[in-house]
Write a structure and sequence with these properties.
heterodimer, A: alpha+beta, 2 helices, B: alpha+beta, seven-stranded antiparallel beta sheet, 3 helices
């Protein structure tokens, strides 16, 4: 049940109890929000880091030409 | 807690990569998801110092993000807080951690962007409380009616 508590705290499941039966339902919305967040920032940072890499590599080439 | 990790190998020494990441001159060269230009970049790279970047995307929308340097150890590591200006889509504050490791061809950069746990906790608490207060209200309303 401890694992279920973690999922419940994260808002990923809801539980309801009827007599001795506990029904656990998956809540897709928080998962969807997390995936959207990841997708948005993955696009943002992949583009940025590609440009950072080319910029740093040009600065490295420049430093070497100057013999540093 | 949601977090994104990206790793890049860069053919440049860590000091050069570090300066590209932390100085306004460097940030102006690469920040933003596409080929659109950086319009303004400011950075005060010391613990507690702030940065601000405004950029235009190729779809001509303009965006601004800013935050604080939380940790800065040249040339190994920098930690920033991050927030969108007027961020409707993503109003919370998040954390960016960049670690640089010297490797034979130059630098291995590990980039981690994470949603702040506090923010998430606060949000889920808010939802929880709103739900509970709603129930309490309904309970008292029913009590009055009875």
């Amino acid at each position: 049940m401890k694992h279920l508590d973690v999922l419940a705290d994260a808002g990923l499941i809801t539980r309801s109890k009827s007599g001795r039966t506990v029904t656990v339902r998956l809540q897709a919305q928080p998962m969807r929000e997390a995936v959207e967040w990841l997708r948005r920032y993955e696009r943002f940072w992949s583009g940025s880091l590609d440009r950072l890499a080319s910029y740093a590599e040009s600065k490295e080439a420049e430093a070497r030409r100057k013999g540093r | 807690m949601t977090s994104l990790t990206l790793v890049r190998r860069i053919r440049a020494r860590p000091q050069i990569v570090f300066d590209a990441v932390t100085t306004a001159e460097g940030i102006a060269q690469w920040w933003g998801p596409d080929a659109g230009p950086v319009l303004a970049a400011e950075a005060d790279p010391r613990v507690g110092g702030r940065y601000r970047v405004r950029f235009r995307m190729i779809d001509s929308t303009e965006h601004e993000s800013s935050g604080e340097f939380l940790e800065i150890v040249r040339p190994d590591r920098v930690v920033l807080s991050w927030r969108w200006k007027g961020g409707v889509e993503d109003p919370g504050e998040s954390r960016i951690e960049i670690t640089l490791k010297a490797v034979p061809e130059g630098t291995e950069l590990t980039f981690v962007h994470s949603q702040l746990h506090d923010e998430e906790t606060r949000r889920s608490h808010e939802i929880g409380w709103t739900g509970s207060l709603g129930k309490l209200e309904a309970h008292f309303a029913a009590g009055t009616a009875a």
